[in-house]
Amino acid sequence: MNLTERELITKASLLRGITLGELARQYELTVPSNTIKSKGWVGELLELALGATAGNRSVPDFESLGIELKTLPLTAQLQPKESTFVCSAPISNISASDWESSSVCKKLDKVLWVPFEADTSIDISLRRVGNIFLWSPSSQDIQILKRDWEEHMETIALGQIEEIDGRRGEYLQIRPKGYSSKDRTKTFDLDGAPLMSNPRGFYLRTLFTRKILEN
DNA sequence: TATTGATCATGC
DNA sequence: GCATGATCAATA
Asked: Under the phi-then-psi rule, with left for phi > 0, alpha for psi from -120 to 50, and beta for the rest, what region is A55?
């Protein structure tokens, strides 16, 4: 049942132009009337359609291929509309790690991008899937991502998590990630003393996914 | 109006 | 609570 990379790409290419409504019908899913209560729906639909197997385990969507699936919502101008969540930021333990062994690096090693129409004027069931493509970061991309990651991790290691905001990082930013701003998770302050803080996640800026899309 | 900060759903 | 999947909405 495990597809080869080539088979996956072929399968993905067949989805070009299909509407979310058509795809949902194939899997007997109901198209949500709005995305506010169904934020992850498109991602889950594409996981089904392409046979991703990871569920909510912390492994790539296509485990045997080491490929991560990411939907990429587009504006009416076919530009990326939103930043892309990568993974949560480790703020609770100072696990001495380097870029190569980081979750961010592993997640972005191979990504199957699924661009799709996300302009709100289009009915959800009529939004079309675009040209799905397999991508890996270029060496220049990696240089910048690695630098961003190292700067964020150093700030966290110094116990300055509260200083971090979404303005930091050229390609990779850190923003809140949780159920609400009241969410708290364990971390530490600049003296190493325990502190409760808002959970955060790593996100790719739209500036970066726009560059990806252009190539 | 682009970006940062806040939020929604589900499974275990 | 944290992993998965993200988009909404206030504000600069």
From this structure: left
Q: CA-CA distance, A157 to A134, in Å (whole number)?
A: 34
Task: Report the nucleotide nearest the CA of residue A56, measured to C1'.
Answer: C4
**Residue A157, token pair as written in the block:** 């290691």
**Strand C and A199 CB separated by under 7 Å:** yes
The integer distance in angstroms from the CA atom of A3 to the C1' atom of C6 is 26
pLDDT of residue A96: 64
Residue whose entry in the numeric block shows the structure tokens 């990568």: A86
| pLDDT score, position A92 | 84
Answer for A175: CB within 7 Å of strand B. yes
The segments of chain A whose pLDDT lies below 50 read: none
Residue nearest to nucleotide C4 (CA to C1'): A56
Can you list the positions of beta strands (E) in A52-132?
Answer: 68-74, 84-88, 111-117
pLDDT of residue A196: 94
**Which bases on strand B have an atom closer than 7 Å to a protein beta carbon?**
3-12
- Cβ atoms of A123 and A60 closer than 8 Å: no
The C-alpha atoms of residue A136 and residue A88 are separated, in whole angstroms, by: 20
CA of A139 to C1' of B11 (A): 36
Residue A89 has which token pair?
């930021």
